Amino acid sequence: MGKRPTSHDVARHAGVSQSTVSFVFTGRAGISTATREKVLRSAEALNYRPNLAARSMRTQRTGRLAIVIPFPGLSLGSLLEGAVTTAREAGYTVELVNLSQDAEALAQEVDAVLSSFEYEGVLSFSPIPTPRSSSAASAPAFLALSEFDEEMHATGAFSDAHPLVEMMEHLVGLGHRRFLHIAGPSDYPAAVARRDAYLATVDRLGLESVGVVGGNWSGIHAGNCVRELPDDLPPLAIIAANDVLAAGAIRAAVQRGWSVPEDVSVTGWDDLPLSLHFLPSITTVSQDRQRLGAYAMRRLVAAIRGDGAPEPETHLQQVIWRESVAPPRT
Amino acid sequence: MGKRPTSHDVARHAGVSQSTVSFVFTGRAGISTATREKVLRSAEALNYRPNLAARSMRTQRTGRLAIVIPFPGLSLGSLLEGAVTTAREAGYTVELVNLSQDAEALAQEVDAVLSSFEYEGVLSFSPIPTPRSSSAASAPAFLALSEFDEEMHATGAFSDAHPLVEMMEHLVGLGHRRFLHIAGPSDYPAAVARRDAYLATVDRLGLESVGVVGGNWSGIHAGNCVRELPDDLPPLAIIAANDVLAAGAIRAAVQRGWSVPEDVSVTGWDDLPLSLHFLPSITTVSQDRQRLGAYAMRRLVAAIRGDGAPEPETHLQQVIWRESVAPPRT
DNA sequence: CGCCGTTTCTACTACGTATTACTAAGACGT
DNA sequence: ACGTCTTAGTAATACGTAGTAGAAACGGCG
C-alpha cells in the first residue's frame, strides 16, 4: 500500500507479463485491444505511473532539458533565481511545470504533478487551490505561496503589508487626511493583506476613506475607477495595490486635470522597471524577490526533510520614496 | 570513447572495485586517503559523473523539485511558458539552472551543465559565450538565443528589427527628418540588429541622424544622453532600443522643457506593463514571447532529433502605435 | 604463534524498465 | 493433413548505482 506500484504489480493484477505492460505503455504494436484495455484498467486501479528514472536508465535517454538563466534574469522575477539557487545548494534540481489557467483543469494538473511520483516537493508562487487529499501514499511536500503568504502575514514578516502602513503614516505626516485604496483581486492573499492593512490603518488613525475600488490587476480598470470620482475630491492620497494600478490611476488623474502629486499623491507596489522613469516617478515598495524565492525554497526543503520551519526572513520589503508623493496642496 | 563512463570504468582504471568508487562518491567512511585520491584521479581522467537516473533508481529518491507556474505567469516572460509547453508536448521535462554573472565562472558553469550528461539539450535565452569544444562524446544540443537571434536576423524573421524600419518609415511619413537612436549593449544581438537597421534606414531614406547613443539597458543613462543634446534640436524622433530606454528619454526630454510628442517623438520596444499607462503612452513593439519561446524549444528539440530546422515563425512582433509619436510641431 | 578487533576493500544484489529473442497459437494455401 | 506465415504474448536480460554482507590485511596482545 505504501509502496509505489511497478509494472510488475500491474502485470500481476492484470494477469499478464511485465513485458506486456511495458508494451502497452510504450505503444508498441502487437497487443490486442482486449489485453491493452485490461492492462490500462489495472494500471488505473493501482495508480501506476512508469518510473522515469528506471526508464531513462534503460533507454539511455534522460528526456530532460534545461533552460539556463543568467543571474540578472529576464525580469523573471529574481524569485526563481533565489529558489533555484537554494534548491541546488540543498542538492535538488528544479523543474518547471506550467499549468493552464482554467480553474478546473488547473486543479487536475496540480493533482497529476503531485501524484506523479516524480517530485519530492512542489512549490507554487501563486495562489493555487489546495490539492485534493493527495493519495496518502508518500505524497510530496507541497507549498503554495498562498498558504505561505498567509502564514507570513500571521507571523508579521512578509505580505503583512507593513510597508503600506508605513506609507500611510508618512502621508498623514505630510498632511493627508483623505485616502482611496485601489485593491487587487481578492484571491491573491497579498492583495487581501494590503486591503486589510489599509482599512485597519484608516480606522486606527481616524482617516477619511473615499472607498476601496479595483478588484483586479488591470491598470485600465484602475484608471476608470479614478475617472468616476467626484470632481471636488482632491486633495487625495491613493494607495494602489501595485505599480500597474498606480500608473493607471496617475494617468487618469492627470487626464482629468488633477496634478500629481500636488492634488493627488499616489503609491504603488513592486518597483517595476518603468516606475522609476514615470512622470512623476512612482513611490513604491521594492521587494527582495531573490531572498523571498530562496526563503520559500528553504521552507519546502525543510518540509521534505521533516525539519522545522526555518527562521522567517525580515526586511524583504522596503519603501522607495519618489515624486508621486507630496504634501497636499493647501 | 563515445560512451559515457560508469563507475565500473573508473574502478577498472583505478584498479579497485566498483563499490569502492561508489563509496568515494557518496563520501562513506572507511576509505583510505590514498585510495580515495586514486579514484578521484581516475574519475577526473575519464570525465566520470555519477548517473543520476541510476542513482535515483537505487536510492528511491528523485532529488527533483518542481516549480509550477500558472499560465498568466508572474511576468516571467511568457517565454518560459511557451518553451515549457512545447518541450512537454515533445516528451521532455524542463529544468531550471541558473548561472553566475561573472563571465569566467559563467563559462565554466555552462560547460559543467553541458558535460554533466544530465541533459539532452540546453537552451539559453540570453547571449552566452559559445561553450568550449564540448568534449566530442555525445554532447547535448545547445541553442543560445544569441545564435538564434542572429540566424533569425539572417532569415529575416525575428530580430531582423523590421518593426523598427516600419516605425521609422511611419515617422518620416508624418514629416520627421531628424532622428536619434538610443542603442542597447553591443553584446546583445537584438540590440545590434536594431542599431544596424536604424543606420541602414537613415542611409536608405537620406535622413539626418543626430547619432547613436546609449550602449546599455539603463534608462538613467538614456536620460543623460538626452540631457546632453543641444537645445535647438527639436523637432526630433528618438528610436530607443527598448521601453526602459524610451521611458528614460521621455522623462529627460520633458524635464528639459521639450514636450512629447509635439517636440520629440519617441519609440521603444517590448511593450512593458507600464508602457501603456505612461504619460505619454509609449509607442512600442510587442513580441509574442510565448510563441517565441515555443519556437526556440521546437528548434532545440529538432536539433536533438537531427531533424531539420522547423519553419521560422513570422509575425512574432507587432508595432503598437501610442501617444509618444506624432507629427513634428511646425 | 594464535586470537581478536579494526580498518579497508570486494563480491553480489536489487532497484523498474525497455527490448531482444523466443514460443504458442491461429490463419491459410496446397 | 502439413508446412508456412502472421499475430500475440512471454522469458530473460542489461542499464549503473548504492549498499549489505563478508573477506582480507594488519596490528596488538597475551
TrEMBL record, chains A, B:
Task: Name the domain of life this protein comes from.
Answer: Bacteria
Span of domain HTH lacI-type: 5-59
Alphabetically list the UniProt keywords.
DNA-binding, Transcription, Transcription regulation
**What's a Gene Ontology MF term here?**
transcription cis-regulatory region binding
Q: Which InterPro entries match?
A: HTH_LacI, LacI/GalR-like_sensor, Lambda_DNA-bd_dom_sf, Peripla_BP_I
Do the record's keywords include ATP-binding?
A: no
Q: Name one Pfam family in it.
A: Peripla_BP_3
State the CDD domains in the record.
Answer: HTH_LacI
Q: Which PROSITE patterns match?
A: HTH_LACI_2
Entry coiled-coil feature ranges: none
What name has this protein been given in UniProt?
A: LacI family transcriptional regulator
Organism of this sequence: Glycomyces algeriensis
Q: What is the lineage of its organism?
A: Bacteria, Bacillati, Actinomycetota, Actinomycetes, Glycomycetales
